[in-house]
Amino acid sequence: MHKRGLQLYTIRELCEKDFIGTLKEVSSWGYNGAQFAGYYDTSAKVLKQALDEYDLKPAGSHIGLDQLEGDALKRQIEYNQLLGNDLLILAYLTEENRKNIEDYKRAAEILNNAGYLLNREGLKLGYHNHDFEFVDHGGAAGYDILLDETDPSLVSFELDCYWAAYSGYDPAEFMERLGKRLVTLHMKDMAVKGTEKQSTILGNGELDLQSIIKKGNELNVSWYIVEQEHFEKDLVTTAKENARVLEELLS
User: Fold this and answer.
1) Residues of the chain by 3-state class (helix, strand, coil), percent to 5
2) For residue 7, what is the enclosing H or E element?
3) Sign for the pseudo-dihedral over CA of 7, 55, 123, 67
4) Predicted TM-score (pTM) of this structure
5) Which whole-number Å values give the CA distances from 240 to 4, 9, 17, 200, 202, in the listed order?
6) How many other C-beta atoms lie within 10 A of the C-beta of residue 54?
7) Per-residue DSSP letters for 114-132?
8) Which residues, including other chains, have CB under 8 Å from residue 148's CB and lie 6 or more apart?
């Protein structure tokens, strides 16, 4: 079975009100995995019980750069081992951490060090992109630096298809470039309205989703994760429709 997950950042407003109850809904909508963007002060034990009860698997957890070092990383390791989640993903580089090539090299060093420690504990590390990684910094884009400066055995990548397309790349072609380092995909369609680009429900935008799925299957992507940031319908309807379309695409 293809693994269909939901990045909970999409429905963070619901999670803030009732995290455990929302996880039950996520399962009922047709997802078999949840990707975390915070735990809402929920213990790993309680969260694992909920995931087991609702037949949901952990599909990775998004964390910040400051959580990849020292005691913060130790806490992440302990929490996710209890949870049964084996993938941590650097979600975002703040503006102060991506001003130039040296910043990206510094981030790569942190990723390598964290990847080594996670690997030793039976966990994996990934990197999730936005659009700014594709900006040129004197002959090299941030993404190039991250790819070149990180150890392939320690650092994998979660490609956000929307942001790759937003930056002018064909997501399927970019997936080929990542090859075995591609661990998960953020499935997010792109609608173009005049000069504006926005994320939209799968199938309502301009991305060639079939080519993305095909390439993902060829590369043995572990999770296809729905994420959306702009909304024309309410959160529940949006999440349900995305789950339905993703299931059709994967069938």
Assistant:
1) 50, 20, 30
2) strand 4-7
3) positive
4) 0.96
5) 12, 15, 19, 13, 11
6) 17
7) HHHHHHHTT-EEEEE--SG
8) none
The pair phi, psi for residue 166, each rounded to 5°, is -55, -35
C-alpha–C-alpha distance, residues 31 and 140, integer Å: 38
Give pLDDT tens digits for 145-204. Answer: 999 999 999 999 999 999 999 999 999 999 999 999 999 999 999 999 888 999 999 999
CB 187 within 8 A of CB 147: no
- Nearest C-alpha neighbor of 48 from the set 15, 3, 82, 14: 82
Report pLDDT digits (tens) over 32-84. Answer: 999 999 999 999 999 999 999 999 999 999 999 999 999 999 999 999 999 99
| Gap between the Cα atoms of 178 and 171, Å rounded | 10
